Structures are given as structure tokens and as C-alpha cells.
Amino acid sequence: MNLKELDLKYIWHPCTQMSDHEFLPLIPIKKAKGVYLYDFDEKSYIDCISSWWVNIFGHCNEYINEKIKDQLQNLEHVILAGFSHEPIIKLSQRLCKLLPFDKCFFADNGSSAIEVALKMSFQYHLNNGSKKDKFLSLSNSYHGETLGALSVGDVALYKKTYEPLLLKSITTPVPTSKDYTKELEILESILKNHHHEICAFILEPLLQCAGNMHMYELGYLNEAVKLAKSYGAQVVFDEIATGFGRTGEMFALDYCSQSIDYICLSKAITGGYLPLSVVLTKDEIYEKFYDSYESQKAFLHSHSYTGNALACAAANATLDIFEKENIIAKNKIKSAFIKTQWESLKEFDFLGNFRNLGMVSAFDIQKSKYQRAGLEVFQRALEKGLLLRPLGNTIYFMPPYVINEDEIAYVVESLREIFKDF
Amino acid sequence: MNLKELDLKYIWHPCTQMSDHEFLPLIPIKKAKGVYLYDFDEKSYIDCISSWWVNIFGHCNEYINEKIKDQLQNLEHVILAGFSHEPIIKLSQRLCKLLPFDKCFFADNGSSAIEVALKMSFQYHLNNGSKKDKFLSLSNSYHGETLGALSVGDVALYKKTYEPLLLKSITTPVPTSKDYTKELEILESILKNHHHEICAFILEPLLQCAGNMHMYELGYLNEAVKLAKSYGAQVVFDEIATGFGRTGEMFALDYCSQSIDYICLSKAITGGYLPLSVVLTKDEIYEKFYDSYESQKAFLHSHSYTGNALACAAANATLDIFEKENIIAKNKIKSAFIKTQWESLKEFDFLGNFRNLGMVSAFDIQKSKYQRAGLEVFQRALEKGLLLRPLGNTIYFMPPYVINEDEIAYVVESLREIFKDF
């Protein structure tokens, strides 16, 4: 059997109706470099979605590679309870300098970081003497797929089947236009009626990635956070996808004028190399858990690989690159170039809702003869050497930051050819 | 500030009442090799608990290091939806040859693997036309700390605080002696009354690690699995801690005469290097999800780093070592040596409930003048250069398999000295 056959014999792929692979290619990748993935026939693909939004400095980045190799010589992993290591101490210090937070609590994947934030907020109120057990989140949100994380999400595709297993949570509508008066009114009315039971308001700031790359107004974000806090709800920003430069600033929080309680980070934190996630919070929250052992106020949550040294080394290398190469400033130029290129596709009248934020661009296929138009684009893009993976009929471009202007132009030109023939 | 001060300033450690570090050391580790961890004063510690039960072939193992370095040259990570890579295909094929399963579904940490198994079992019944939404698990069990995984656990320390956020699940008593008649009766009565709503029976076979290293009879395991299946419940083995040789065989399932539906693996799968987890299941289950896209029967669960290539390379290297060095056979000799050594501590009449299974040994401190006797042992063991991390008053020894007889003897002799002075 060849690799593809072996794959389909033994692997059940994530987020996939496996019967699709009766007609859809399943592509084993042999090697990768920069923005390019290479299959076993030496065909190359530009990774236009950063391999699920994780890769920012290219595949097999030499600097990150070297730092992981160095770390392998010293320490691959040690238990993080009672013990520690230099890469995680450095990383925590750096994150607390980049962000208005004081303490880092680590986990492995994004979902687990969300679970940490939910449990921590619940227990914060409990340690503070008040029993609240509901979470408030935005419509169209996605926060991961473990049951707790799934409970505060709203994308039916991932959630509907599992409803009977989920926590009941409260959803408030995300704005869908520049006028968010109505959405703020609904939020206020929910808070007025439910503030006694709401632990926290959790949201993806400015950009709901899995929710078809929906972008919403900063004005709403600022007002909504202010409102939630005025009603005693803590605020959690899920920046798992938006963090580390994706929205144009280092974090979407950098755009926000309000102070929040928790931020969840993962994905690009290791440059796209290894699973690592972290929840940052403030000392005033930490202190509500800091008591005698007997008080039973400790936050008890752990994963075996929490704070993995190799992943922390990759994360420190990633932060090094941001600093040394002035990435955020450079991305502003690149982002403007992408926007201009992207908007040239407005020539097709069946494409609409063009949107850009930092290093994310999207539009929707609004009319098509194809039942699964996004899938049609996926297949045709593969033929042109592009890994694009639409969300339904939303086509988005979320490349590693190392992509250059020629490559960007090639991606847009390829899309133009695809749509000319659509 | 020194590293320890920086650590305590920026890091909130897992599974820790942070105020304990007012008197308890927090030890940054500089490097590690084999069973030894070295701090920044060059003091060494034998890692008697395999850094939370993950490390099996020693820290900074040269063979695993080389395989990760090789992988870094080719591919660090690629999205696993629609794409794949050789290390994960090989790994999946090898796991399906080692175990009586057909398909591998990957995730990052143990908790996430449990969430996958719960969601998959729930949806299996749904796709099969029956609505069941409860899970059955053993008393004293631990399956992780995301909300779904925590719901099927029973260790109060981790669970009690978060009860209002958890799924209601059903618990059946784990046997506590060689006679398990009563436990089987209770199980049967639960199944009789609740079989219409029970998706699956989830259990840690033979050994409940976080449940104070409680060991129970194989006879119960076989009968309980048989009973559950006869009432239409699927069976999930959580071998996150027990897998990869820990119980003496490659998997605890190897001892079991019954067939099961899902096995969850993590921890030692990468030799203790990187977070990776997998749920294995059978084609007859996979086929219940295999349908047209429109049927909405697909299993939609994903984590960005699912099937990470570096972690899979570490996992393949780990399986190589098992094969090439005939580890399971060698461990049987080592395990017998540990048992003899361990039982020499029976000389202390305040120690009891001595138990061994494969590469796990434990006893309980049954009387002590210390309020937190386990913590007292932890501190004194550190002084003697041992990382032992008791579970309450249970002292256990769960070393990397590369530990040698001299090192084992040193651990036991150190414990003897500690207890002489207790």
C-alpha cells in the first residue's frame, strides 16, 4: 500500500467526513520549508492557512530549529509541579512584559486553556464567596471542542450534535454591521437579568476565526467589556487564533481600551511547531486562590506535559524573531499589500463581504452553481499548488508572516483564475 | 532576582497551592540525563515518578533526540485535515498492529483524548439511532481535568470544587479487596437500571494512578467489561498512565480477556518528550460515522496541533526502543527486583498496603505524627536527591525504565533512612 492508502486505513482525521476522501485528495507531506509544503511527488503547496493558523515564521524555520535542538541537549521535559526550568521562566516573564498580566498558567492546547479560564473564573467567584456557574459568550463564537470549551462556543457544525453533553451557557449576539446599538442593548439586558449567575464573559476579540472569519467593531468590544465588568462578570479574551500578530498588533487586546481578567494563548505561541497554551491573569485574581493548603482554595488543574521545555524553547525563539526582526511593523506593510491584492477579486460579482484585519483576509462566495462551493475552491487551489481550506463558502487567506509579495500575488492570481472558470 | 524568585513572580504552577512554596522548595532544573535531573547548583535528583508518569527511556535520550532532530529537518508540523505525514502514518500502523484496533484519532493531551472518546461514544449511539447521554465510571477514578474528563472522574480533590460545571455521571464502586462479588452486583444493578442511558463504561484498567495508585483485580476487570457490553454500553480503557509497559505488559489491555471499543493513550507514548494523545477504535465504530457529508454523521473534533509531526517522531522512536531493546521482557526482571527491594520497607509497622504492578510500586503511610506525612517525605527525599511526589500519604515509585539496580537500591535505602527518622 502507498502512504495515502495506509493513511486512510489507519487514521481517522480531525474535522473530516472521511467519506469525502473517496473523491478528495489526502496528501501526505514529505517536507516543508518556509511557506511551502512538498508532497511525495515533489509537488509544492503554499500553506495559505498557516496549517490551521499556527505557523507564522515558516515551516522548518532555521532559528526555531536551532533553539529546539539546543534545548534537546539540556532538558526535554520535567514536571512543572514543584519543579521548573529556565525556558518557561523566561517565557512567562516575557509574556507578562508584553501583556498587562502578572501570572501564567500553562496547558497544552487551546481547548485546555479555555477550560482553565472557565474553571479559574468559576473558582474565583467561589473563593470570593459567591456561587455563579454560568458563562456568557458571543453568538458565532468558537472556543475549542473539549466539552467545557464547546459549551461556550456557538458554531452549530461543531456543537449541535453534542448539545446533551454541554453546560448550559448564555449567548449574546455578535454585531454584524457597523451599528452595534442593538447588540449592546441585548447584552445589557442579559447582564441585568443574569449578572448574579454569570462568572465570565468570554470572547474572541475583533475576529471570530472558526465563525467564518467574522470581524466586528472595536467600539462594540470596548463597550461590551465595560458593560460586563460593570455587572461583575470577569472578562476572558480568547486570543488563541488572534494572538501573536495575527490581527495586526501583537494581540487584539492591544487595540482594546479596557482592562480584562484573563487571556488565553496558543497556536502561534510556538511559531507553529508544538502544542503549548497558556492563560495569563492578574495578581489580584491569583491572590484569591493563595491561602493555606487546608483552605482548599488552590486551583487544581494539570496536564502531564504542562510547560513542556521543548515547546517553551520554541515559544522563546518565536518571541526572539518578533523582537529582532520587527515583525509587527513589517506586517503592517505586508498587510496593506495583501489588502490591495485581495480587493482586486471584487471584480467577481458573486464574491462579497470582503474583509481584512492585519494578516487575515476573507470574502464569501455568495452565489455558485456548486453545492459545496468552498470545497470546489479547495480542490482547484490544490491543483494550483495552494493549501486553502475554506470555512464553508468563506475563502480566507491567513498565511505565515514570511510570505513574500510574489507569493501573495500568485495566491490572488490563482484565485482569479479559479473564479474566472467558476 | 534569581530563577526561583522569577518563577514564583510569573508562574502559577499546576496542581499546587502556591502558598506551599513559602516553605517548600521550588526547583528550577538546568539539565537532565537518564534518570537524573540537575538543578542550578549541580545537585542531582533521581526522577522517581518519571516526571508525572511520562518519561520511560530517560531524559535527553540520545536516540529520541536524534529522531526529533531528523524530523526538524523535514517537517515540524502540518494540518492533519486533508493532509498527513509519514511519521503519523507509521505510528498509526504500528499502534494498530500492537493493539486490537483499526483506527487512530489523535489529540494533544490525555484529557483531550478522554473528551474524544466520550464524544465519539455518545455520537456512535446517536448515529446508531439511540439517544444516550450518560457515562459510567469507577469510584476513585481519574481521567483528566477538562470539564468532560473531570465529569467521569471521582477524585474529590480535583472534582469537588467544580461540581456545578460538570456532567452528571454514574459511578460504580471499584473493588478494594480480592473479593469483588459485591462490586459486580452493584455494577449489574446499575446497568439494569440505567443501560438505556449509558453510552460507555470508562475505566483505568487494573491501576488507578491518581486515585492513590489503587490496584484492583483482573477478575473484576474481565467480568465488569463483559457485563457492561452485555448491557449495550461501550467500553473505554483509559491507558494514558498504564500504557506502554507501565503495568508489566505493553498495555493493561493485554491482560484482559475481553474485547473493548476504545483505548486512550498519551503520556509515555512520546517517551516523555512531547504532548501527544490518541484514541484507538474499531472499524465497526468508524463505519457508523462514515456517510455522506450531508448526513452530518462526521466526528467533528479537532485541535490545531493534532498529529504533530515532531511528537509522532518521538513516538516512533519510543516504539523503536521497545522493539530493539526488548523492554517488556527486561522490565519483568527489573520489576521483580524492585518488588523485593520495595517490600523490605515492610519493616516499618506504620507503612502498609504494599502493592506492585509491573513498573509501579506503592505503599501508604498509615500512621504519622505529621499532618501532611507525604509532604514530609517529599521534602526529605529532595534532600537525598530524589524526586518523589507522594499522592497524599501514598508513597509510590514509578521510575523511567532505564533506572538500574544500584539506583533502585539507593531509592529504597533513602526511604529507609527517612522512615527510621520518622
UniProtKB/TrEMBL annotation, chains A, B:
Substrate binds at W52, Y142, K267, S302, R389. The modification N6-(pyridoxal phosphate)lysine is found at K267. InterPro entries: Aminotrans_3, BioA, PyrdxlP-dep_Trfase, PyrdxlP-dep_Trfase_major, PyrdxlP-dep_Trfase_small. One of its GO terms (molecular function) is adenosylmethionine-8-amino-7-oxononanoate transaminase activity. The record marks C15 as: Participates in the substrate recognition with KAPA and in a stacking interaction with the adenine ring of SAM. Its EC number is 2.6.1.62. Keywords: Aminotransferase, Biotin biosynthesis, Cytoplasm, Pyridoxal phosphate, S-adenosyl-L-methionine, Transferase. GO terms for biological process: biotin biosynthetic process. It comes from the Bacteria. Pyridoxal 5'-phosphate binds at G110, S111, D238, H303, S304. Pathway: Cofactor biosynthesis; biotin biosynthesis; 7,8-diaminononanoate from 8-amino-7-oxononanoate (SAM route): step 1/1. It is an enzyme of class 2 (transferase). Its cofactor is pyridoxal 5'-phosphate. It is found in: Cytoplasm. The keyword Transmembrane does not apply. GO terms for cellular component: cytoplasm. It catalyses: (8S)-8-amino-7-oxononanoate + S-adenosyl-L-methionine = S-adenosyl-4-methylsulfanyl-2-oxobutanoate + (7R,8S)-7,8-diammoniononanoate. Pfam families: Aminotran_3 (PF00202). HAMAP family: BioA (MF_00834). Homodimer. Belongs to the class-III pyridoxal-phosphate-dependent aminotransferase family. BioA subfamily. NCBIfam families: bioA, PRK05964.1. Catalyzes the transfer of the alpha-amino group from S-adenosyl-L-methionine (SAM) to 7-keto-8-aminopelargonic acid (KAPA) to form 7,8-diaminopelargonic acid (DAPA). It is the only aminotransferase known to utilize SAM as an amino donor. This is Adenosylmethionine-8-amino-7-oxononanoate aminotransferase. It comes from Campylobacter ornithocola. The gene is bioA.
